[in-house]
Amino acid sequence: MATAGSDSNNFVDDKEVSECAVCLQPYVHPAQLPCGHIFCFLCVKGIANQSKKCAMCRQEIPRNFVKHPHLLGEVNEGDSDIFEGCYQWYYEGRNGWWQYDERTSKELEVAYKSGERTCELLIAGFLYVMDFETMLQLRRNDPSRRRKIKRDLASIDKKGVAGLRTSESNQNSAQNCTQSNDINPTMSRDEHLEQAQEPTVCLTDSQDVANA
Q: Where are the alpha helices (DSSP H) in 39-161?
């Protein structure tokens, strides 16, 4: 599985380039290909699984790049926003739960809190339908490709973020975020929304704030 790198000296300068050429949005976990072009990691994953060539210069992407990407900076769980009630969004992988990247998480949260039954999101080059009633992610052109999703506490054990292992992946950060009520990830949307109105307490330290 992909592991985050720490080559901070090559981190993209926002004054020069601030948007990914694939999704035309600000970089999320920027990854640099051997040809030198930079894209969001999930955008690279999408083109690597489909055209297998750089979207800018058409140079071939190494077969093992997705598993061993050249990331420009660390990937930290604390970089993602924590939603009301100390929640985050997760999808189920083969060996546990992974946190969605911050952009996808925000889009899921907006649709969920708006009361929508489903929403469509582009992830790694594929269009997915997110069903909030069944809590499933289904590929639009192949519904048999599905996985479970859930909205749960940001402090739960997780494998990493968007397929990338983080420095916090093997640690339980329960001390950073506590809630006065027990959370049941199988609760319905209405029950979640009702519980979200109840008072909660989030505890952070200076290091967590610095990483936010």
A: 41-49, 102-113
